[in-house]
Amino acid sequence: MAMLGYEFMQRAFWAGGLIGVIAPILGVYLMLRRQVLMADTLSHVSLAGVALGSFLQFNPTISGFVIAIIGALVIEQLRRVYRTYTEVPVAIIMTSGLAVAVVLMSLNAHLNKSFSSYLFGSIVAVSDTQLGLIAIVTALGLVFFVALRRPLYNFAFDEETAAISGTRVSILSFSFAVFTGMTVAASMPIVGVLLVSALIVLPASIALRIAPGFLAAMGVAVLTGLFGVFSGLTASYYLNSPPGGTIALILLGFLLIAVFIQKLLQLRNRRAVQINKPKVRGVINHD
After folding, report:
1. Contact (Cβ atoms closer than 8 angstroms) between residue 228 and residue 8
2. Angle between helix 60-81 and helix 87-107 axes, rounded to 10 deg
3. Which end of the chain is more exposed for a tag (fewer CB within 10 A), N or C?
């Protein structure tokens, strides 16, 4: 393929492939923990970090990465303060991050022009530094999810049961929050701040709808994420469209197709049961 002859496309595909593996796995756990909005919130916090780095003339990638991790830790701490209202910490941090980003961007008009790549993603925006960070995050994430797969499984479904079974829920919860922040910040160059949650949530939504078990859901989510990222980057290159929006639309199409096929199968099964009912009654009456 001619597009792979360009160095920026090679970097984009490498970055997309790495994120396409780790983001859907994280998405499955976030959906099981009912913390889907956490990804969206941390993307806004990461944007504030990018704005702060640009304003202070520091590397915006590094600052966005660090601020996203800090934001994840603050959310986790606030979640323990507002135990009854678990959505409150998400709302507080989301609005705070967005407010800081908007104010910092307004202080320097030059920042507004360069922020479109952070908002919507860009296939030419993936630098060597970002690719290195994405590779580190993916490697750490795979080690994290493989080494702690059993505690994470119990932790994802019920924290109290996991604590009773001996899992150190507090440490695991903070570690999970830190990794969520790292993944969100690493995904930003490919899909952009506004659509990071699409890459994390949509493959997991498809997987949890059609997969027969937990491990199968992980496999389906990763395959869906990879196919969505690669097809989205390819379409973005030829159509000259923002990669974030293109990837999100393709994943949304996958979800609609999966829902449609599942409804057709359910309808076929119901008809098969209705057709077989008279036969069963006939056999019973005959006996």
Report:
1. no
2. 150
3. C
Characterize 273-286 residue by residue with b for buried, 16 or more Cβ atoms within 10 angstroms of its Cβ, and e for exposed.
Answer: eeeeeeeeeeeeee
Q: Which two tokens stand for residue 147?
A: 């080494």
Largest CA distance in the chain: 86
Rounded CA-CA distance 19/190 in Å is: 9
Work out the burial of residue 268: count CB atoms within 10 Å of its CB; fewer than 13 is exposed, 13-18 middle, 19 or more buried.
exposed
CA contacts within 13 A on the Cβ side of 256: 6
**Sign of CA pseudo-dihedral 155, 159, 163, 165:** negative
Q: What does the DSSP assignment read for 74-111? A: HHHHHHHHSSS-THHHHHHHHHHHHHHHHHHHHH-HHH
Q: How far apart are CA 129 and CA 126, in angstroms?
A: 8
User: Looking at this protein, which amino acid is placed at residue 286?
Assistant: H
Angle at 49 between CA 59 and CA 18, to 5 degrees: 75
Quote the tokens at residue 255.
């979800």
For the chain, 287 residues long, give each residue's pLDDT as a single digit of tens.
Answer: 677 888 888 888 898 899 889 999 999 998 888 888 888 888 888 888 888 888 888 888 788 888 888 888 888 888 877 777 767 878 888 888 888 888 887 776 666 656 667 777 776 667 888 888 889 989 998 998 888 888 888 888 877 777 887 778 888 888 888 888 888 888 877 777 777 888 888 999 999 888 888 889 999 999 999 999 999 889 988 888 888 888 889 999 999 998 898 888 888 888 887 777 666 566 555 55
